[in-house]
Automatic annotation (TrEMBL):
This is Putative membrane protein. It comes from Haloplanus vescus. The keyword Cytoplasm does not apply. Keywords: Membrane, Transmembrane, Transmembrane helix. The chain crosses the membrane at residues 21-39, 51-70, 77-96, 116-142, 154-178, 242-260.
Length: 270
């Protein structure tokens, strides 16, 4: 069984490695164009904001992270991730019905099948963001990441900063809306307070269930593990630039600089 898993993992590594440009650059750029065109009414129904295409595109862009983390998912990690998926559904369900902790909001487009009003694909949209922030901080902090007092607040702050890029772009596209609006491109401050809570819970669990030594070893040998964050920066910064959300786009640019500092992109993507 172990050899079979190793063989599958090796094939997946090769598949992602050989298609890095397509996955990390082409998909998010095409995705940004299609999303903006859908929001502007250029793409007609039923192709506009097609939920299947949104989920498929997201899964493709997530694939470097999923494959990169694959060897680290043992039983303990799987249980932790499963618990976090359940938490994501629960907190979203509470938020949709009570407005806590993110503020009153509702989905404005179809994001695919739902469970009690919560998109089934929610963990695919949310949990990888936290993983990306975790990996980025480990690489940028270096030896300082050994200290939980440094590592955990840094990752939590990074995840909240990612939402400063994501939420304004999503609201501009019409993915979801806050009826009362808010000072950050239509997003209320309560949303970011809610993300502090969700990020803290998720980061603490991930930090507990992942073998950090094995994770660092995997990062040393897996150059594409952060390519999903490249996709995130290209897609959501592009969307924010189009809609004039310059502050959100600037935060996305900071993530781009952080990626460059990891020195993982010093050779041409294949």
């Amino acid at each position: 069984m172990a050899s079979t898993r190793d063989e599958v993992q090796a094939r997946l590594d090769e598949l992602v490695r050989d298609n890095r440009v397509t996955i990390a650059v082409v998909f998010p750029l095409v995705g940004a164009v299609l999303l903006v065109a859908s929001a502007e009414g250029v793409v007609p129904p039923p192709l506009a904001f097609d939920p299947f295409l949104i989920l498929l595109g997201t899964l493709v862009m997530r694939s470097p992270l999923l494959v990169g983390m694959g060897p680290l998912i043992d039983r303990r990690a799987a249980l932790g991730v499963g618990a976090l998926a359940g938490y994501a559904y629960l907190i979203e369900y509470v938020g949709l019905r009570t407005g806590w902790p993110y503020g009153e909001f509702h989905y404005a487009i179809d994001l695919g099948p739902t469970i009690a009003g919560v998109p089934v694909g929610l963990p695919v949209f949310f949990l990888p963001l936290v993983c990306n922030g975790y990996l980025l901080c480990l690489l940028l902090l270096g030896d300082r990441a050994r200290s939980a007092a440094v590592r955990l607040p840094a990752v939590i702050a990074t995840v909240v900063a990612m939402d400063l890029v994501l939420d304004p772009g999503a609201v501009a596209l019409g993915f979801w809306t806050y009826p009362s609006g808010g000072p950050v491109y239509g997003v209320p401050l309560s949303n970011f307070a809610g993300w502090v809570l969700s990020a803290t819970v998720t980061v603490l669990v991930l930090d507990r269930v992942l073998d950090r030594t094995a994770l660092l070893d995997r990062l040393d040998s897996c150059e594409f593990a952060l390519d999903d964050l490249v996709s995130f920066v290209l897609l959501w910064s592009g969307v924010n630039v189009y809609f004039g959300n310059w502050g959100a786009a600037a935060v996305g640019g900071l993530f781009g600089l952080g990626l460059l500092r990891t020195a993982r992109f010093d050779v041409p993507l294949r």
